[in-house]
Design a protein that fits this description.
Layout: E1 3-6, H1 8-26, E2 31-37, H2 41-50, E3 56-63, E4 76-79, E5 89-97, H3 101-112, E6 117-126, E7 139-144, E8 149-150, E9 166-168, H4 172-176
Parallel strand pairs: 2-3, 2-5, 5-6, 6-7
Antiparallel strand pairs: 1-9, 3-4, 8-9
Helix pairs in contact: 1-2
Amino acid sequence: MPQPLLSAERLQSRIDELAAAVDRDYAGKNLLVVCVLKGSYIFTADLTRRLTIPHVIDFIAVSSYGDSTTSSGRVKVTQDIQQEVEGCDLLLVEDIVDTGTTIQFLLDILQERGAASIRVITLLKKEGVEEEDLPHIDYVGFTIPPVFVVGYGLDYAEHYRHLPYVGSLPAADELDRGET
């Protein structure tokens, strides 16, 4: 089993704080929350349930990991959003930012579609990544060590999403080689 890194209670407390910041920053705006599937679905659900401002939710699915613990560096859209983004203020909800490749890809395509503004919220950001190498992240839940994490929506080969906490897989490199 994964080693707990962030408890369910700690996650929920921080999401309360993030929702209050989003409420404040988006008051009076035409908010479209875009959940990056699949890893962000639990975070997005918990975050949007706490918002008190009007908003619409949509989903986009991208892939850059497959069944590996490292990004391939190539991002592809596997499910596009349904809402028209032109003139909307978008909040892009990501589960984890480590290389910034996926976020930059999404920012580029959503800006081309005419969004009034785009901000990024991520539950997790890995430490050790130089800020100048990342796109601007407006809201960060937690900065974590550079380990492979699962739980609270994040997975390894579609497993562990159900965990109510975020945990690390101590032997993730062995999982990539098929060792257990």
